[in-house]
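A common beginner's mistake is to predict each chain separately and then try to dock the pieces by hand. The better habit, illustrated here, is to supply every component at once so that their relative placement is modeled jointly.
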Amino acid sequence: MKQPLLELKDVSKTYPGVQALKKVDFDLYAGELHFLLGENGAGKSTLMKILSGSVQKDSGTISLDGREITMNSPRDADRHGIAMVYQELSLFPALSVAENIMAGRLPRRKVTGMVNWGRAHADSRKILDGLGLDIPTTTPVQDLGVGASQLIEIGKALSRKVRVLLLDEPTSALSVHEVERLFQIIGDLLKRGIAIIYVSHKLAEVPRLAHRVTVLRDGEKVGTLDVKDAAEPTLIRMMVGREVTDRYPKETVPLGNPVLEVEGLCLGRRVRDVSFAVREGEIVGVFGLRGSGRTSLARSLFGLEPRDGGIIRIRGRVADIRSPGDAIRAGLGYITEERKLGLVMRMGVAPNMTFAALGSLLRFGLIDHAREREAAVGLIQRLRIVTPHVYQLVEFLSGGSQQKVALARWLCAKAHVLIMDEPTRGIDVGAKVEVYKFLSQQAREGAGVLFFSSELPEVMGISDRVLVMAQGELVATFDGGKSASDDIMAYAAGGCGSSPGGVLS
Amino acid sequence: MSKLSLETGTGQVPAPLTYRQQRRSMFSALAGPATGLLLMLTILSIVSPHFLTSLNLLNVSRQAATNIIMAAGQSLVIFTGGIDLSVGSVMALAASTAIVAITHHGLNLWLGILLCLLVGAGCGFVNGVIITKGKVPDFIVTLGMLSAARGLALLVTDGMPVPSHYVAVRAYMPRALIALGAGEVLGIPAPFFIALVVIGVTWFISQHTRTGRHLYAVGGNREAARVSGINVEHSKVAAYTASGLLAAVAGLVLAGRLNSANAHMGTGAELNAIASVVMGGTNLFGGEGSLGGTLIGGTTLSVLANGLNLLAVSPFWQQVAMGTVVVSVVVFDQWRRRRLAGRG
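With all components supplied together, the output reads:
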């Protein structure tokens, strides 16, 4: 057996409160495409970041050609010929294609030290030709489409002597036509002996591209398969197959009248004609992968993004929601996908809890600090938030406690429809269970909960019903049973792989 | 793990810090700026025999007043994460307009004062609306106002000090205005008394009203404020309007003290106002700070200027010294905060 080009052994990484990678082994041969699969939070991104030098592993070894290498910065990765193509493009929009491709290594004239523009453009021309792109090298990148920009990003990696290319969801924003071209280019690169690690949610791409597949779950490697053994159902079972019974405390509550009814909601191309209803006591899960329109739906319901059309009814009455203020008055509460976007970190626990309910804590038009403090103490005890006192800055709390402060805000505002966008992202398992309990308990008290997530087990675990979203549309509805997980994933992923052409172009 | 219960948990019960305790912990944030002021007072008392005399101290407080009043408005803007570069010009425009209207056109004194406040608040309101509705950076909008308001002030006064003997209906300042600048209240110079009232009122608004709470929230995390249902645009407009209004108040006080107004008053005042706020420990990026700090910062700045005068330092060197001290105080404060944060 030949020697792997790149080999990782026992690589671990811990972030505060989360173990992102646990003793992961991984190898890669020259000319091979190794597909990396896993749910959000499984550790794929962390692995890629370690290989590109932007975060450092805590333990374990990385070897190249059988020799252990150090990887402390992106410069190290560069030196070893490992290049990352970022999911969020890292191009300079106002600069030309040539300047972007040659960024940081523009050729200079020997004597004057001035940039040798002739060579810069000639070199980039060669790279563009290799990628089959006939755009002028003087074009500013902002004038290019997403697809071409993605290829420029790859060109930038190729301008260095790259041996290992890391691609993170490269097709998520491309049209079918652009995807085809990207796949051709990938094939050419593999023939030239470049090794590729490819991260994607799209299972349909596996047989098309991969030589081998590795599945990660909760920071651990579940297994590595040859592509001939990697049937889709097998991969899905490896990605989601975990014991779900006691990690998702779910009470069955008799359902009441509809609290939230949505009809024909539209938001540009991101949310298209979405209709559904949530009843009192019901937890409705909305499952969708990145880019499915999940977050846009949540934001438009809460008035953060003006919807283009559609009717929202709260408790049977039409609610004209144009701003978060309207939404709060109508009885909605919202947890942001990114926790940092929802909390004022440099303010205390109490003010953060009472922002949305300050109107009810006034006396003669002034803030009643004593009552605010009482309310905060009550919420802190009820949600078991660990804080030394009620005015502790939120920034100093743990991730789980921060999230509970955000939840407490809506308890304080007496919201009866909770829109939760990834409420358990980035918090540890214990805190996750408490968040599920919180939602269950709110449902028991008659609230309707809309639970947006890209983690299938939790969606199935705590929802009465699961709506599946792909390409901005609701593509399927499931009862909250556990048997349907393969189907749900197939709908969510299938929606992306076999999309009608040109939707996002 | 699934046995966890929300209601019956025996988790850590927080000590319910009282409002007064919270106040006290906030005072500790003023420790840095206050130390700077005390240090300066001590040094100046030792090196200059004229410094620690009641006459001199009353004089300093009189001089500090207009800057402190403007800095109070500036604080509200900086809490929201903004900046108001136009306060010096707005002060000149508001004061000049009022004095011209009163002395050249015979407008009633109280209507004149009202006009002054309206002009100031109006300029601030325009700043706020353009910043929020036009989505233009604060820096650019208020820089534009800095230039435009100064130009308008020159137009209104025809470039001359007012009241002007050539065109005045009554060529003297009303007594009430002179009293604003030169009078005394409870043994304190009237300007400083007004500055203390302004600091008190703005402090009260910042700590005890919903509007005040919203200013900090908007500056601390604009997106979170929005998600919490706070109207970010209204908060910002309110802050700029208050800043313009207080610039007008400062203009009245200064006109009273100088017994005259002119289009060039308050040139560069915006920098002193901003320096005072920052020296008071307020975060220039918004979300944190206090008006107590601004009072200390503004006083420090005036004490320093006075001390350098008493020591007969050349005015050229004075500017160098002022700049150096402002930056040093902030560097020290940042260093102290990082250490505290590291420990907490």
